[in-house]
Design a protein that fits this description.
Helix content: 25-40%
Number of helices: 8
Shape: elongated
Order of helices and strands: EEHHEEHHHHEEHEHEEEEEEEE
Largest sheet: 5 strands, antiparallel
């Protein structure tokens, strides 16, 4: 059915700028019907209803704050491997369930509180405005500022302090959830990077044969890799511990050792240095017998094992740490203590 078939009195009417009613005709069959009469909400005419809505909004914001606190408490208190049965899902990770529930509640209640506030307490009167050019003239800018002030006034943010304070509290606490997630970047190192499994009396065990080393097992010019006694590949923390405790054992002629401390910490020319490069922690495995240099295969940092393992080339920042060694009563090579400085790359706690 076309617009011409509709009785004229049933066609939508539009109001002009002066409020007069005009009827759609053949030249303008789709005239703007205009806005319906504004109907006041119960909160607009009953202050008790407005206060009830205010308390509902405040309750939602307060619930968001409690959920955020619950998120933080769950993150700290619940073990990461604890299961829980939730009907009808079944057995799931308790920490994941608690974090998801509290974080979702915190987000939802902030949104629900804002929506309820807007729908029940803020002004809901529709205002038609003419389109204008992109470049706003001064009078339009003034109008925008006046509208903003009017909107701020109609929101009653200054008058309804309970909503304002609870909203600020919810918005201030919620970002703490994201801050807590930074904990998953890893635990603080504390003093873990300063200590290894080496201690006085720990035997040096050959990485290949898994047997304790005797001085006679290390020939002049040879390179042997060692680990602390008691560390096995089946251990859960093996990779973590070997990354700090792996040793390079080299036997030099005592006359070829230039560094006085290196000679004192050696045994009959047998020196023990950390195998972990001080640049980014790669394992060093390339040894040049004639020059006594070792090379890191990752970024070509080169260390002189005859001169305190100092850096002679490459990006490494400092020499390889040396382990002081001796011989036990049974004739095996043993550590006389731990490294005196952290092994591996430099870190912010060094010094």
């Amino acid at each position: 059915m076309s617009s011409q078939d509709i009785p004229e009195e049933n066609l939508p009417a539009e109001q002009d700028a002066h409020g007069a009613v005009s009827v759609a005709d053949e030249h303008d069959p789709f005239a703007d019907p205009g806005l319906p009469p504004h109907e006041h909400r119960v909160q607009d005419i009953d202050e008790r209803a407005a206060r009830r809505s205010e308390r509902v909004v405040a309750f939602l914001f307060t619930l968001s704050m409690l959920a955020t606190v619950g998120f933080i408490a769950s993150y700290v208190a619940i073990p990461h491997d604890k299961p829980i049965f939730v009907f009808p899902i079944g057995h799931i990770n308790a920490l994941n369930f608690a974090l998801g529930l509290t974080l979702g509640t915190a987000l939802f209640t902030i949104g629900a509180g804002a929506v309820h506030w807007a729908r029940t307490l803020m002004s809901d009167e529709e205002i038609a405005d003419e389109r204008h050019a992109i470049e706003a003239p001064p009078e339009v800018k003034a109008k925008v500022m006046a509208d903003f002030k009017q909107g701020a006034k109609e929101s009653a943010l200054g008058r309804r302090k309970l909503i304002r304070n609870t909203m600020f509290g919810a918005l201030a606490l919620f970002p703490l959830s994201g801050v807590m997630l930074l904990r998953d970047l890893g635990p603080l190192p504390g003093t873990k990077l300063r200590h290894t499994l080496w201690s006085k009396g720990k035997l040096l065990v050959n990485m290949n044969t898994n047997l304790p080393l005797r001085p006679s097992d290390v020939a002049v010019g040879s390179l042997t890799f060692a680990k602390p006694e008691g560390l096995e590949e089946t251990d859960e923390e093996f990779q973590t511990q070997i990354a700090k405790s792996a040793l390079m054992i080299v036997r030099l002629q005592p006359d070829n050792i230039k560094d006085k401390r290196e000679l004192e910490w050696a045994h009959e020319g047998i020196v023990a240095f950390s195998k972990i490069c001080t640049h980014v922690g790669c394992p060093i495995s390339l040894y040049e017998q004639q020059t006594h240099h070792v090379l890191c295969p990752c970024h070509q940092s080169t260390f002189d094992l005859s001169d305190g393992a100092r850096v002679i080339f490459g990006p490494a920042g400092h020499a390889l740490p040396q382990l002081r060694i001796g011989v036990s009563d049974e004739g095996y090579l043993e550590a006389l203590g731990d490294f005196e400085e952290p092994v591996g790359p430099a870190f912010w706690e060094r010094g």
